[in-house]
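# nightly structure sweep
# worker-07 picked up a monomer target from the shared queue
# config: single-sequence mode, recycle default, output format = structure tokens
# input follows
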Amino acid sequence: MNFVLAVHGAPHSSNSGEHALGFATAAIAQGHTIERIFFYHDGVLQGLSSQVAPQGESDLSIRWTELAERGVELAVCIASALKRGVIDSEEQARYEKDAHTLARGFELVGLGQLITAIQHADRYVEFPG
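# output follows
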């Protein structure tokens, strides 16, 4: 079965990232495919490279990167990301910012990427904030 996931909650203030990671890992272990994980609203902060996990808490950024290395697309809504300071090198240059802040393994995309993925998926699962 092919899944598309959407994460709406910010790390460390919502469990949506943890739950999505757990779901994706379990689904892959059972032979399913996670085509794309779409990060929307405050969920785009999951892709912020400058985060530091509080002492004793799981570092979600490492786990997201591991998932990307397994072929899962980590798609960050560009409109939500720009509002929250999550930018790649292209947006850094466009807006003349000092640094890019998008973590490795993530990419900025438009909302149309979510719609296209949903059309091709067997199941769409949201993890609200």
